[in-house]
Amino acid sequence: MRNFRDNLALYALMAVCFAVFCYMGWRYVDVEFLALTNGDAMPQFLQLQKMSQGLITLNIKQFFAFEFYNYGFFYYVLNLLAALPFIITDNYPLQIYAPRVLNALFSIANLWLLYKIARMYLSACNALLLVGVFVAMAGFWHLGYVFKPDVFQAFFVLACAYYLLRDNFSFGKHYTLAWIALGLGIGLAKFQAILFIPMMYAYICLPALSMQAGQILLALKRCALGTLGVVALWIASNPYLLHKSGFNAWLSMFEGNMNSNATNHGAYTQVSLGDKLAMIDFYYFEMVVFIVLLVLCCYLLWLGLVRVFRDLALGEIHKQTIGQNKDSSKDYYASAVSRDDDKKMDSRIFTQNAEILQSSNSTNATRRQDLGDKNGALQGESRAHTLAYVTADSPQQNKGYRSPLGDVSLESPFLAPKQAKRCGRELAGFFRKPMPKPKKPQSLIPFAPLAVGFFISLAYLLFFVNKAWEAYYFSTMALGCVLYIPLALACAKAFMKTSKGGGGQHNAKRSTRYQTAVLSLLLALQILGGFMSSAYKQVFTKYPISLDSAHALAQELTDLVRPFITDPNATIFSDNVNFYYLSLGLKPTQIYQIFGLPNADGFVYEQWSKKPHSLPFIPKDFIILSQNWWLESYKKRSHSDTDTQAVLEKLFSGAYPYKQVAKSAHFIIFANTDEQHSNITKPKE
């Protein structure tokens, strides 16, 4: 109950965000204009229709034919379960709305996880400010309720980061949970999460910078085992991969995605670096805030590579034995204490005083009290000595082999004296007073692997993906928010050095105030930039285009195609699927949208049959093309796209089994003449 009261502000923020998402998701649930909304709303809607039909008819091929195989199968199952009651009752609005509510829950779960990470290092108020920076991103509202797995993927990436910070280079249970979280992100959410595997590799290899053969071999072993575990989780959560047809379908989708990334989704246009940075500035971080993040990332990389290499390889932390158990771990820490004469002397004093106190307890109560006062001061020294080196999670995690990096502090990367800590606990038990909890960890080195994950995923998206799609960047930017924690810590430390000294409690309060100032400045810049760039206005707008023009085009297309729809089983293949097809007696599952540029495999049986397929060919009875796209816009880029040029020439010349039957100011209609592969007996001319 007390924990709930302490986090009441967070829960209130989560409730407000969820309510806004629910409102935004309900604004447009018109299935005939679903393609105008954010994301791949129409294709995702159709995938659930197909999977539900396969589930009802017990057709396993159809159930696994959700086409977007780069998304996790389990993600689709969750959304199917949310929408299934409304699919059975043919309630189109709620079929659309249910997955949006589910994805809104994933979004607020990200807020909770980010807050949980921040509370390991910051006060409750400052942790809430960091969450506010995340909420202030326009992309959070833009993608927070959309039927796409990017928000779901971000949850697992943040969970992986959380467990790495909890583990703090002890390679215990939290290290294993970090691998599991990342594996689930790849298998359950989206294959793109594989971009963050280098974060795990960096975490593993950082202790190996000592350049000792044993450490390097141990790091390679951990990398191999972790990778195998991720592959196993990916296969287990996507069982269709075990079948040859299923794996071929995934491979085909993967190759298609790589080609899409290279050609800007079939548009064959080059997206500049400036366009991608402008997208980041619009949807995620203001450019000043983003530059600060990049500088911080470089600093953390230097901290992880240069400083740790210096401390490990040059002897500030000595050799360790590989594969130590609990007993050998104790011997290691005892030898580490013996390296330093002062620490050795302190440890002996603690042990001797503990024995004296125990002896005096049985003989003289008064003498015990006197000695207790004397040794209480020594106990305070032990506590202070321990607090300087031991992190908040080390007492619970130090149960076996522990890397020395787990005890690297912001001030000094020395090893924690475990023997002194043990004596301190004995003295505390003697006086019946519990050992006070150590301060929250202040080390910046555990953030270095997170910086590696952020940097590599960002570099890949900026330089190797020819797209400026904001959804691709969501997980990377969510991880970037975590990196503002060391920014607040480092800035507060720098400010403390320039200010006058004071008591310990006074210094702690001042440090917290400095952190608050840094995070408040970031939040103010985010909000100000969002209003100045009109990002908030755009993401909260119901439709990205004028509905008046959309309804006019829909009416024109409906009137143009109405005379030819004589069979309720007819299918339509078009780049514009926003028209009144329900009034024609057609269902959404009979409308197929063209993405990018047309491919003959999608509507010509002879072309489709040249490649192996796990599902039967679906004839397209009518092809509807928008003139402003296929004729006017295409002429400007036809020189760089010979394949599409050949497809359009064959379609217009009659080389394919289609003939032009109607034309208006904005649309051209082609009817299928292949009676053998058609859903209707004969197209009406």
Automatic annotation (TrEMBL):
Keyword terms of this UniProt record: Glycosyltransferase, Transferase
Record carries keyword Glycosyltransferase: yes
First-level EC class: transferase
EC number: 2.4.-.-
Protein known as: Glycosyltransferase family 39 protein
Lineage of the organism: Bacteria, Pseudomonadati, Campylobacterota, Epsilonproteobacteria, Campylobacterales
